[in-house]
Design a protein that fits this description.
Elements lengths: L8 E5 L2 E2 L5 E5 L2 E5 L7 E9 L3 E11 L25 H18 L22 E9 L2 E7 L6 E3 L8 H16 L14 E9 L4 E8 L7 H11 L3 E8 L11 E7 L3 E5 L2 E5 L9 H15 L6 E5 L5 H7 L4 E6 L2 H13 L5 E5 L2 H12 L4 E4 L8 H9 L4 E6 L2 H13 L2 E3 L3 E3 L9 E8 L2
Helix pairs in contact: 1-9, 2-3, 7-8
Bound molecules: S-adenosylmethionine.
Length: 453
């Protein structure tokens, strides 16, 4: 069949999953990406969009189900864009995630590295500690929840199987309060109304909650009444902050945040450490798996007490501080100034005096830093999805850092960076994927690279 006469629909066997969680099959020799389809499914797929090198399809008639196919446990699954793998068994999800890491390492990095079975959750529900919920609708008829997959239409969330139940309770109370007081939610199209987002954070260890109300306006009408009602309905709420975002943008937060009631922080206990979480700081969203991840980093670091450890992309200093009791000195680097202040505060509340934190972009700070620091025993890198800038990896290799521990949330950039480091004398060991985000297509990995002597 010629390219011009491609069928509008075809019988497709799904043989893979994309990193976004769509099933991947072929029509003739062209790849087709099919949401809600998983490997082992066979079905009629309608072509929705034709791109230059691939198609986007829609599963219209499932003829044969994958052995891993299940009924989505969440009633919002078909509409909600939050979880992509609701129709796949948990065992299927984790074996696919392992495969995804293996494939990326081989295909992108040209690396034949052992990938361990995924460190999975024993009960993969109610694991999330943070939610960003857009508000919409009209005064008295407030909708609040998630954007429908690929749109800006708000799906009204009544329950959520991945968030901590207290967060859902608070979300319901926020929606009810704003509706009862007949206050206007934000209207994205006309850039009117007030309430844009409710960001909710939970401490699993303390069973406490923080709420950040993001508004278009400088002030919150009936603020005292809102605070009073929420406190009464949700006694676990200990902190309410207000963020002002007056601009026409998809970005959730504006520049200004102030605490309007209660504590400036909530605290999460991970292992023996206690970490402060502020309205704007980054904190891993799955506390149980964060412990599994940090324990793995600590095991790989294999510290004996006197080592000099670099913690790059350190956020609020959590990984470095987790290792501090077994290290000589920790130096963290992070670009966000608030995160750096939180890192210093975290060091203080955990009585760690051997840690220091530098604000700046790793690629700007590290080359000079490693020259000044002398012999570095261990460097931990935990970059965002785009991976490490070459300047960072180059500087670590030139400084002859003994061991590098790479924590990654993106197998593709992990593969690229491991290949780069291998060229410069580092051998990657066994890669350990950790499932931080069950029911979604995301996978975290950690790996130790050792200097070849
Ligand atoms: C995946 S988070 C890791 C945070 C921390 N290690 C943890 O476990 O919570 C990545 C962090 O890198 C920071 N970051 C992003 N780009 C950076 C850069 N160029 N230099 C330094 N830090 C950066 C982000 O602000 C964020 O805190």
């Amino acid at each position: 069949m010629t390219k011009q006469s491609k069928p509008e629909s075809a019988l497709v066997e799904i043989t893979g999953l994309s990193h976004g969680g769509e099933g991947v099959g072929r029509i003739d020799s062209t790849a087709v990406f099919v949401p809600h389809a998983i490997p082992g499914d066979v079905g009629e797929v309608e072509i929705v969009h034709r791109r230059k090198n691939y198609f986007l399809g829609r599963l219209v008639n499932l003829k044969q189900s994958s052995p891993e196919r299940i009924d989505p446990p969440c009633p919002h699954a078909p509409a909600c864009g939050g979880c992509q793998l609701q129709h796949m068994s948990y065992a299927g999800q984790v074996s696919w995630k392992r495969l995804q890491v293996e494939e990326a390492l081989r295909r992108i990095g040209g690396l034949e590295v052992e990938v361990a079975p995924v460190l999975r959750m024993s009960a993969p529900i109610h694991y999330r500690s943070r939610a960003q919920l857009p508000l919409g609708g009209s005064p008295g008829q407030v909708t609040m929840g998630f954007f429908r997959r690929g749109t800006h239409e708000i799906v009204d969330m009544q329950e959520c199987m991945v968030q901590h139940p207290l967060m859902v309770k608070l979300a319901q109370a926020v929606r009810r309060t704003i509706a009862d007081l007949r206050l206007p939610p934000y209207d994205e199209v006309r850039h009117r109304g007030i309430f844009r987002h409710a960001v909710i954070k939970a401490s699993f260890s303390d069973e406490t909650l923080m709420l950040v109300l993001v508004t278009r306006t400088e002030s919150i009408p009936l603020q005292e009444e809102i605070v009073e009602r929420l406190r009464r309905e949700v006694p676990e709420l200990v902190s309410i902050a207000h963020n002002i975002n007056p601009t026409v943008t998809n970005v959730v937060y504006g520049e200004r945040t102030k605490v309007i009631w209660g504590e400036p922080y909530i605290y999460e206990q991970i292992g023996g450490m206690r970490y402060a979480i502020s309205p704007r700081s980054f904190f891993q969203v799955n506390p149980q798996q964060t412990k599994a991840l940090y324990d793995e980093v600590r095991r790989l670091a294999n510290l004996s007490g006197g080592e000099l450890v670099l913690d790059l992309y350190c956020g609020t200093g959590t990984i470095g501080l987790y290792l501090a009791k077994r290290a000589g000195r920790i130096v963290g680097v992070e670009t966000i100034p608030d995160a750096v202040s939180d890192a210093k505060y975290n060091a203080a509340i955990n009585r760690v005096s051997s840690a220091e934190f530098i604000q700046g972009q790793a690629e700007a700070v590290v080359p000079d830093l490693v020259r000044r620091m002398g012999e570095i025993d261990v460097a931990i890198v935990d970059p965002p999805r785009k991976g490490c800038e070459e300047a960072v990896l180059k500087a670590l290799a030139q400084a002859d850092v003994g061991r590098i521990i790479y924590v990654s949330c993106n197998p593709a950039t992990l593969a690229r960076d491991l290949a780069y480091l291998r060229e410069r004398g580092y051998t990657p060991g066994r890669v350990q994927p950790v499932d931080m985000f069950p029911w979604t297509s995301h996978v975290e990995s950690v790996v130790l690279l050792s200097r070849r002597s």
